[in-house]
Amino acid sequence: MKAPGNTRILVWDLPTRWFHWLLAASFAGAWLTGDSERFRDIHVILGYTMLGLIAFRLLWGFIGTRYARFADFAYSPASVMRYAKSLLSRQPEHYIGHNPAGAAAIFLLLALGIASGISGWLAYNEIGGDWMEAGHALFSDLMLLMAGLHIAGVIAASVLHRENLARAMVTGYKQGEPDAAITRKRGLAAILLVAAVAGFWGLWFNGRLDFLVSAQPAGQQEENGERADDD
Ligand code: HEM
Description:
Layout: E1 7-10, H1 14-33, H2 40-63, H3 77-88, H4 100-124, H5 129-161, H6 165-171, E2 173-176, H7 187-205, H8 218-230
Antiparallel strand pairs: 1-2
Helix pairs in contact: 1-2, 1-7, 2-4, 2-7, 4-5
The protein binds protoporphyrin IX containing FE (HEM).
Protoporphyrin IX containing FE binds next to helix 1, helix 4, helix 5 and helix 6.
């Protein structure tokens, strides 16, 4: 929690950055296709992608580089409160990795991503009935709300600390003391992550994952039933 030095240092490894932007894109895509029968398969595949990405992030939270590890940003509620209070002072606490408020949002986002993905899978496979569908809608709405708060928090912290946090999530670099830098980008792990996502989508495009998207959405079944009744 030092004041930022003025050396350009590597903070976010490649897997963390690629995970982040792939998760943001998958969530945005899943959100936009959520209500559409036409894009239902894409919605489901994006849901699997999100779950896979989060599974990777859970692993990376233990074996990733310094600031990607959960141990680096597992703050107590008291730290979150202290950080929130410090924002009102002239000298807000500065963190090289995730700050306590951001960390709380991140854990919530990961938990909501899991809840939304699993409830979506269950609802799609008609397990849990209307309750499951309502649960899936609720988790997804809460995730959208958290993502909005997260983006607002990123903008606020960027202004307060006069550092562009979004750019750091793209380049991996921030200003800091040289001894706070991570030393490895972990490119191989990032390539494996992207290859796994691309491979999954490639298999789906080639019709090899039809068993994952074979459940018939309830609305469509009703429609088909009605049509069968009409005939
Ligand atoms: C334009 C949109 C977004 C921007 C600019 C953005 C920016 C950022 C930044 C700067 C961080 C690092 C925060 C820090 O310095 O402590 C971060 C972390 C994170 N963001 Fe976002 N974010 C966006 C959208 C999203 C969305 C839509 C989600 C989830 C659905 C999301 C989930 C996360 C997660 C899980 C982390 C933690 C990264 C990690 O340690 O693995 N973000 N985001």
